[in-house]
Amino acid sequence: MAGSNAAAPLVSSLSKLQSLNGLFAIYKKQGPTSADVLNKLKETLLKEAGVQNPNPRKRKKQSLKMGHGGTLDSAASGVLVVGVGNGTKMLSTMLAGSKKYIAVAELGKATDTLDATGSVTEEKDFQHVTKLDVEEKLNSFVGDIMQVPPLYSALKKDGQRMSVLLKKGHKVEAKPARSVTVYNLTLQEFKLPFFTLDIECGGGFYVRSLVDDLGKALLSCAHVKELVRTKQGQFTLEQHALHEEHWTLEHILKSLQACPDEEQSVAGVETPEGGA
Predict the structure, then answer these.
(1) Which of 73, 115, 212, 213 is catalytic?
(2) Does 112 participate in catalysis according to the annotation?
């Protein structure tokens, strides 16, 4: 009898977890992929609920329906919005909505990935670039602009991510330029060869492509040194993003933003287009 009584709270905890419907935000640290972070979150929650040896990568007969709204690069950190239960249907609104980033860029070096994880492909002089030059060039990147996504990205070709194909040695052609929106773009700090940008943009935008294009516009080259997403939709890094020590049912219940009427929610689950 004692054993069955002990099991009851665990069953209750799992039921509560599986009944969650809505959106919340977690903090993604540098290093792991967004998918890795999501799987770790699921595993942590299932373990807390008493599930033995949970496998978050198994999608069939999955005991916890969860997805994320917009991939962050492995090297990036910050807000990652998570949908749970029927909240996964709302994730496409997260992809299309406004996002904010703080990006540290380095002038004088271009890389194949357009960030610090890649191999240097070009080096150019940058001593001629002034703070005023950067501020003036930024004006041409505000509003609706055309942007070519990076080759190393989560965008797919023939069903596989372009970054994965490249790492396997396949040749991949750049996707055509597409229209993206930049709402605000300001220079926060300038200390050669580094400069820091504060960016607010819409869906499908790549900070790495912006920095690469900006480097060329300054008659040099540049890549992203550090990238932090500080806001996605209504979720901010400071107020909403749960750090790993708070990946518990209790903390998620406190921060969960419940689904509106399901008929009004936008269909769509975890889609990796744009954002970093």
Answers:
(1) 73
(2) no
